[in-house]
Amino acid sequence: MRTRRRRIFGLAMLVVLATLASKGPRAFALSAVNLSNTAGRSYNPTLGLNGVTLMAAWQDTTPGSDQIFMRRSPDTGMTWNPAVNVSQSPGYVLEYDWNFTGRFLFLAWSEWIDLPADAHIFLRKSTDGGATFQPLVTLSPPGGTSRAPRIAVSGRNVYVAWQSTNSACAGICFRRSNDGGQSFSGAVSIAGAYSAGAQELSLSASGPYVFALWMGGTANSIYFTKSTDGGANFSPPVRVNASITDYYRQAPRMAVAIPNVYVVWSMAAYAYPSPPDHYLAVYTWSNDSGATFDGGIHVLSQGDLSYDSTYPEIIVNGTYVFVIWNANQGARAKYISYVRSVDGGATWSTFTHIADGLGWFGRPGPISWLLSGTDIHVAWISPPGSTSVPTNIFYRRGTNAGTSFGTTVNLSGSVGSTGNSGNPRLLTAGRDVFAVWEDDTPGNLDIMFVRSQTGGF
Tens digits of per-residue pLDDT, 277-323? Predict the structure, then answer.
């Protein structure tokens, strides 16, 4: 009997192997999960991971006003617990940011309580990996409008900054906790003399350092300040783009790899030898933890000057620096351009178009990209929603530190989306790659989730 079973098993295996060989390499089959599945409008999704606990967050109008929902997976997206309304307030959530480190999860958001009253900043904390949340804490002082909070965490230190019109905390308002969010210092302005029109805030922390970057003033200048003592004191803000007269600046971003601080932005420099009215992707850097900047502004989109280069984003890993931006040429000829440096920004590769002529890539939330080991993962939306063609989420993976890129994958189309998809977000952990996006295929706007265990889609 055992011999006969072995023969049957062996014949079955031969049939399976022959079938696989005739079909060639096996493609990874994607299956989407509707994370929100609510009656309201779900949008602006984000992901966070700690160990095997995967968290998804989004804004949702189901309660009657915009709130923040979160959903928790204890096994990296294999199964999901029910969604929870974490903000649970009577107002309207405008923006949010969160940090997931160890068993601690910090969620901050700005919210209108009684329209058109002032907006305020609130925070909730979880100490058990997002399973439960502690009571709400109000961070912003009374008066003025507080928007766009940013959170940075380093060890037991938790930092929250936001854009503020409060007269006692103007420009960029800042609070810190050195006990894991149990208590916070008083609110202080770190914008100094450069508080007018503060926007596009970035916040980063590493060890005792805290870095803040923002744009403001009548000329949309870009300002930077830092703390070397865990946020107790900040240096006087400096203008990082002081060496050239650029008439308009846009979307500054910062990346830190101590002692290097990199800043990228888009600018219209009519005095620069470029076609009139074109935007350039530029950068500057500091190699002394932000004490000084190199004094120059360096054009990353050199050779790409026939395009408007807008909304640059930057990633740093050791001496590798990667920058991506939107390159627009005409109504529909739009691209994603990319450069990299292997020597800490001293020299740069020539630009490469990752996505060619597929559609619109402007903000908010059009491009998500990240670095995992030596792989670069990029997701974007295309074509523009103003056409009769539904928007889709496209994905491409770069290997060998971005020296080569694979084929483009229609991520939303591959899971059967027939509606408009937007606002993709990516996250990786080892060979796992996670993606979420907004999708109106179910009949209203919901949050879709897919997972790959093969290093990419």
Answer: 678 888 899 999 998 888 667 888 776 666 778 888 999 988 899 99
Q: In which band, very low, low, confident or very high, does the pLDDT at 159 lie, cut at 50, 70 and 90? A: very high
Lowest mean pLDDT among 168-172, 326-330, 419-423, 441-445: 326-330
Q: Which amino acid is at 412?
A: S
Write the secondary structure of the chain as one string of H (helix), E (strand) and C (coil).
Answer: CHHHHHHHHHHHHHHHHHHHHHHCCCCCCCCCEECCCCCCCEEEEEEEEECCEEEEEEEECCCCCCEEEEEEECCCCCCCCCCEECCCCCCEEEEEEEEEECCEEEEEEEEECCCCCCEEEEEEEECCCCCCCCCCEECCCCCCCEEEEEEEEECCEEEEEEEECCCCCCEEEEEEECCCCCCCCCCEECCCCCCCCCEEEEEEEECCEEEEEEEECCCCEEEEEEECCCCCCCCCCEECCCCCCCCEEEEEEEEEECCEEEEEEEEECCCCCCCCCCEEEEEEEECCCCCCCCCCCEECCCCCCCCEEEEEEEEEECCEEEEEEEEEECCCEEEEEEEEECCCCCCCCCCEEEEECCCCCCCCCCEEEEEECCEEEEEEEECCCCCCCCCEEEEEEEECCCCEECCCEECCHHHCCCCCEEEEEEEEECCEEEEEEEECCCCCCEEEEEEECCCCC
* For residue 422, pLDDT beyond 70: yes
Q: Which of 62-71, 134-143, 294-303 has the lowest mean pLDDT?
A: 294-303
What backbone phi and psi angles, to 5 degrees, belong to 428? -130, 155
> What pLDDT is attached to residue 27?
35
pLDDT-derived band of residue 111, with 50, 70 and 90 as boundaries? very high
Query: To the nearest whole number, what is the mean pLDDT of the chain?
Result: 84
The span from the CA of 73 to the CA of 154, in Å, is: 24
- Cα 195 to chain centroid, rounded: 25
With beta carbons less than 8 A apart as the criterion, state whether 42 and 69 touch.
Answer: yes
Instruction: Answer for the pair 324, 336: CB distance below 8 angstroms, yes or no.
Output: yes
Total residues belonging to the chain = 457
Whether pTM > 0.70 for this model: the answer is: yes
Asked whether residue 385 carries a pLDDT value surpassing 90, the answer given is: no
Give the Cα separation of 356 and 333 in Å (integer). Answer: 8
CB-side neighbour CA atoms (13 Å) of 232: 5
Q: 270-282 in b/e burial notation, b at 16+ Cβ within 10 A?
A: eebebeeebbbbb
Task: Specify the residue for token string 């800042």.
Answer: 174
Q: How much is the pLDDT for 368? A: 85
